[in-house]
Amino acid sequence: MKNFIQLLIPPENFTGQSIILVYHDMEILVEKDEDGNPIPEYKKIRDYYDLSDLPVPIGIMKGVYYSALNVDDKMEIPENTKFMNVRHLYRTTNEDLFYLAGLGRQISDWNTTFRFCGKCGSRTASHTDERVKICSNCGHSVYPKISPAMICSVTRGPEILLARGSKFTQPVYSVLAGFVEPGETLEETVEREVMEETGISVKNIMYFGSQPWPFSSSMMIAFTAEYDYGEIKIDDKEILDAGWFTPDNLPMLPTPYSIARRLIMNFVEKSS
To answer: Of 241, 244, 247, whose CA–CA distance to 266 is shortest?
Structure first.
């Protein structure tokens, strides 16, 4: 996100526009019939919800201050609004807002989850100098959790290995991904996940890039790799289908905002 300033406390004497992102679990409050910018106006949120428990600050982007609020009840909501899964935002709005919504969900979820200390059960308080919850009793500190995950494109000459995950609601095919296990290097995760999910062994693993991903509070660390040996044999649990595809015969792909799509398009560009 360009020109984005993260904030730990609300800005003093701020005169610009304010937007509160309202969450319930993995869902965000949006206007029912608005696609371009579906986030409700500040006034609608301020007049409806009790803001005495101040929303957690997210940051300022392009002169707009964003904060996040978690609510327990999603049945009683402002007029002409609805809750929508945060994942669906990338189909309806711009990339900056998608990432802001994801970041807000991560921060607000962390803020709510760690209101009490996991060691002694006492209430925690937010620090003003860094994003951390500190126990008022034992001093235990809890930072926002980030789960590292690898994502990798595997190529075999003019073909790329793509798979359809069991969690996809649409017939989207993507490159393979998986979370890092304790004690693993990222390269070992690539080798293990590709083998577990498709039965393929890879070689020449190279770093490609990274992307924060709000679902499961992940950091996606991307690689490219080449086919070494093996035949496709899906695990039937996480993967519904997998196959080798050429640039002129690609299936439905992930959102353009994702690093998965960037990996696939990198393959296409190199093939041209």
So the answer is: 247
